[in-house]
Amino acid sequence: MQIADNTVVQLHYTLKDEQGQVLESNEGRSPLAYLHGHNNMMPGVEQALAGKAEGDRFSVTLAPAETYGERQEGMIQRIPVKHLEGAKRWQPGMVAVVQTDKGHRQVTVVKVGKFMAEVDFNHPLAGLTLTFELGVASVRAATEEEIAHGHAHGEGGHHH
């Protein structure tokens, strides 16, 4: 079966920066699952996977606009340190999670004081050209429930 809209795709990936440094990988672990055609994957990655089948392995290099977007000016804000989640002590360059009105967001600590921190709300990988090494572990037709919910269920997907 080929990857198309309303298919559930399980995949392994390795994400590298422009220098070839591995930033993230799930190789050797459970595959990631997503529902194709429902905006659950970065546009460039989803487009590259379209038409592929179980067992396919390939690499694709994508510009920022196709992944995490360009870096935007004016995204640095001061927030109370107590709102930073993920560590007890913070230093510049560390990635934290904060709760916003749009859900949890990753931020990068720019400057930290005793009570307040300056954080960058740009995604930590925004502005980078990224290479994805992808391996399709499986492809199956989505269930009616998955289509109605807009995401994959089961291993590597969403659990209700």
List strands and helices in order, with pairings.
Layout: E1 7-16, E2 22-25, E3 32-35, H1 43-49, E4 57-62, E5 76-80, E6 95-100, E7 103-112, E8 116-120, E9 130-141, H2 144-149
Antiparallel strand pairs: 1-2, 1-3, 1-9, 4-9, 5-8, 6-7, 7-8
Characterization of the model:
- With 160 residues, this protein is mainly beta.
- It folds into two domains: 7-68 and 126-149, Chitinase A, domain 3 (Roll), CATH 3.10.50; 76-120, Beta Barrel (Thrombin, subunit H), CATH 2.40.10.330.
- It has two helices and nine strands.
- Strands 1, 2, 3, 4 and 9 form a five-stranded antiparallel beta sheet that branches. The protein has a four-stranded antiparallel beta sheet with strand order 5-8-7-6, with no helix packed on it.
- Strand 6 (95-100) and strand 7 form a beta hairpin.
- It is globular, with a radius of gyration of 18 Å.
- The two termini are 27 Å apart.
- The mean pLDDT is 94.
What is the name of the CATH topology of the largest domain?
A: Chitinase A, domain 3
Question: Major beta sheet, specifics?
Answer: 5 strands, antiparallel
CATH architecture title of the largest domain:
Roll
Topology as a string of helices (H) and strands (E): EEEHEEEEEEH
Net shape: globular
Q: What percent strand?
A: 35-45%
Percent of residues in helical segments?
under 10%
Low-confidence stretches: none
**Number of beta-strand segments:** 9
What's the mean pLDDT score?
A: 94
First-residue to last-residue Cα separation: 27 Å
Output the radius of gyration: 18 Å
Count of all domains: 2
CATH domain class name of the largest domain:
Alpha Beta
Structural class: mainly beta
* Number of helices, counting only DSSP H or I runs of 4 residues or more: 2
Keywords: Chaperone, Cytoplasm, Isomerase, Rotamase
Protein name: Peptidyl-prolyl cis-trans isomerase
Function: Also involved in hydrogenase metallocenter assembly, probably by participating in the nickel insertion step. This function in hydrogenase biosynthesis requires chaperone activity and the presence of the metal-binding domain, but not PPIase activity.
EC number: 5.2.1.8
